[in-house]
Amino acid sequence: MGFLDLLVVALVPILKVLLVTGVGLFLGIEKINLLGPEARDYLNKIVFYVLSPCLLFSNLAETITYKSLVTLWFMPLNVLLTFLVGSALGWILAKLTKTPRHLQGIVIGCCSTGNLGNLLLIVFPDICDESNSPFSKLSTCSTDAEAYASLSMAVGAIFTWAYAYPLVSSYVIKNTEHSSIQSSEPSPDSCTEPLLSPSDSQISEDNSVVLELPLTNMQDGKKMSFKEKIAGCIKCITSKIDLEKVFVPSTVASIAGLIIGIVSPFRKVLIADNAPLRVINSSAALIGHAAIPSMTLIMGANLLKGLQRSEMSLVVILGVVAVRNICLPLLGIGVVQGAHHLGVVGSDALYRFVLMFQYAVPPAINVGTMTQLFKSGQGETSVILLWSYSVASISLTLWSTLYMSLVSNSSTK
User: Is residue 53 domain-resident?
Assistant: First the structure.
């Protein structure tokens, strides 16, 4: 199959995403104001608490079984790798560009957290429907694509709130504490004694643990070993995890959907054609169908904020765009092709395409949701998202074309 044919196949679903996003952006314009700040807030809550959980529950329960979950074991590991490498590259970028402390978390969050949700649910089934698609000959292409996209969305939601959220929040909290300490610090001639003793000023019960690891042990003054530093880093990150944020409605729905899908008795009661409680799943699916267009419209309306001025420098924005649109997609080729060579991911070309595609997606809109929770850095996040999604409209098309060419050529050998 020629490069031009694959380019058309990759372009069609991206154009669909752009059109729906453009409608959302148009509805968010101040003169139209159908998706203004208040309307977006209400619609976002409906998506967060109702539509997205229903979509995940119904899709996972229908498409994921115990057998398929065992086959797809590499996908959660693959998604975790995108988060780990992305956050490492984001941290390096923030340090090289000397990004202000309170904005470093945003940079790391945008580099580590990709849009593994509604974007995949739009793109993959459309690629299967294209007649020139290398996957169109597969009789189960649409079903498999929906299963892959649903599992990717579920795993992405769990890692976003269990890993990225505490990582991003640590920088915001540290900056807040630093500001409060500076504002409450007495002048040199007002008193001569510190308010807290050195032992009390390290960590209190109400203060958050700083993620920066010390080079020495405070108790005996000895230099810490590498293992102690790693253990301290893991302890700091886990101490930041807020279970209320981890077990958001989407996470709970994902777990429930997976349980019903892989446990045969539950599946027979809720999913089978003659299941006595099949109306529950069909109702959830009916509600969930509204999630994809709603999320995409909100995404378009939220990008309007990116047209405003912000503290984020152009160098940092270009760096995030480079990480998400060049570095990670190239890494995806190496990881997936290496895993295929070792026999880890099998011979399913569509599955390998999905695994590669997970590296090429733009930052997740949930990073903007995090900044809304923190009430800090919303404008800077919107600027990064605007530029990232603008570039991704081109890069995703090109990377998708290359990925399809790679998996189709390797599958014919």
Answer: yes
